[in-house]
Specification:
With 381 residues, the chain is of the alpha/beta class. The protein has eleven helices and twelve strands. Strands 2-8-7-6-5-3-4 form a seven-stranded mixed beta sheet, sandwiched between helices. Strands 9-10-12 form a three-stranded antiparallel beta sheet. The chain has a two-stranded parallel sheet with strand order 1-11. The protein starts with a strand and ends with a helix. The model has no long low-confidence stretch (mean pLDDT 96). The protein binds pyridoxal-5'-phosphate (PLP). Pyridoxal-5'-phosphate binds next to helix 3.
Length: 381
């Protein structure tokens, strides 16, 4: 089987991630922060060292701002609902995933205003348009870092600068970029960063992170046991306990820690270069096939390893079924939880065939996908 669905989740993880999870399941059995005995302390130390590693990885100044969640959706909900209240205004973009759009729409029913800034037909956002959308009561600007439909990389540093000048909190959805692009929260003026552990960070499913800059105070959407301040019936204010209720996914976090070791050793820039080369090769081939329409930037330097296309007027799910059944290629068709981005490129009905590449993808796999698409197109003439 050829796996070209890394934007959904990374299929092949580095061996040290599997080993770390199994070791944690067998040998690091305590509940972190839930006792003074040695097994609890050992689990707590593993979690804490992962916080430090993550803070360094994204250049967040305070490791206590690293909050463990279950996925990017949870991180985004916590960030958005934690900061915005009735009467506030939120700016987000047409590249936003439903894990941004839906929480904003839920808040809109409770009196929150919003503006969606549209990108061009390649999915590129102009930071000036974000600035123009800002109002007196704008509380939060949300930008996707890399589109999960078009792969387009957005100018988060320019947007962050504008947000900082205006004193508005800036949230970045780094779901597709974390682990492939170097993200520096200081340099890009990011206040809140949401990412899954299971995509290009190469960690296990059930892991996500929300990084909170010191001084940003989020209201909770979940309260409960934190193992701290147990005499209090109200949620502790100190971070990360304020935002981390309930037992943590310790094996997942330890697996994520190993994944970051791998990313640091390999070098994020080398992983990106690998994916960029594959992406450019794939786009070049596709653009030469009559009957295939490719969406998003043609220049791989402007995008992540995500390429969406369609075969003539064929439904994307039909093509994907053929790719899976006849060629053993796993990729994703349909609408990619990004309805506004689909509207921009006119694929609400047809959906799009999304091929996405990762650290373990090879040029041979890309070539097989190209040949398969050629055959499918030729059978349709
Ligand atoms: C841009 C973007 N944001 C958020 C998410 C949600 O991620 P998760 O499934 O980890 O909640 C995804 C998942 O595909 C995504 O691509």
């Amino acid at each position: 089987m050829i796996y070209l669905d890394y934007a959904a989740t990374s299929y092949i993880k580095p061996d040290l991630v599997y080993d770390a999870v199994i070791n944690a399941m067998k040998n690091i059995q305590g509940n972190p922060g839930r006792g003074g005995h040695s097994v609890s302390l050992e689990a707590g130390r593993s979690v804490y060292s992962t916080r430090v590693k993550i803070a360094e990885f994204f250049n967040l100044k305070n490791e206590l701002g690293v909050v463990f969640t279950h996925n990017a959706t949870m991180s985004l909900n916590m960030a958005i609902k934690g900061i915005v209240k009735a009467g506030d205004h939120v700016v987000f973009t047409s590249l936003a995933h439903n894990s941004v759009v839906r929480p904003v729409m839920t808040l809109a029913q409770k009196g929150v205003e919003y503006t969606c800034v549209y990108g061009d037909e390649k999915g590129q956002i102009n930071p000036d348009d974000i600035e123009k959308a800002v109002k007196e009561n704008t509380k939060l600007i949300i930008s996707t870092h890399g589109s999960n439909l078009l792969g387009t990389i957005e100018p988060i540093t320019a947007i962050g600068k504008a947000a900082k000048v205006k004193g508005i909190t800036f949230l970045v959805d780094a779901s597709q970029s974390a682990g492939v692009l170097d993200i520096d929260m200081e340099a890009s003026h990011i206040d809140l960063l949401a990412a899954p552990g299971h995509k290009s960070m190469l960690g296990p499913k059930g892991t996500g992170i929300l990084l909170v800059r010191e001084g940003i105070k989020l209201n909770t959407i979940l309260e409960g046991g934190t193992g701290s301040a147990s005499e209090e019936v109200t949620q502790p204010e100190m971070m990360p306990d304020h935002l981390e209720s309930g037992t943590l996914n310790t094996p997942g976090i330890i697996g994520l820690s190993a994944a970051i070791d791998y990313l640091n050793e390999k070098g994020v820039e080398n992983i990106y270069r690998h994916e960029q080369e594959l992406t450019q090769h794939f786009i070049n081939q596709l653009e030469n096939i009559d009957g295939i329409k490719v969406y998003g930037p043609s220049d791989a330097g402007r995008k992540l390893g995500v390429v969406s296309c369609n075969v003539k007027e064929m439904g994307s799910s039909d093509v994907a079924a053929l790719l899976n059944r006849q060629y053993g290629i796993a990729m994703r068709p349909g609408l990619h939880c990004a309805p506004l981005a689909h509207k921009t490129i006119g694929t609400m009905q047809q959906g799009a065939l999304r091929f996405s590449f990762g650290h373990a993808t090879t040029v041979e796999e890309i070539n097989t996908a190209v040949e398969a698409l050629k055959e499918i197109v030729s059978e349709r003439i």
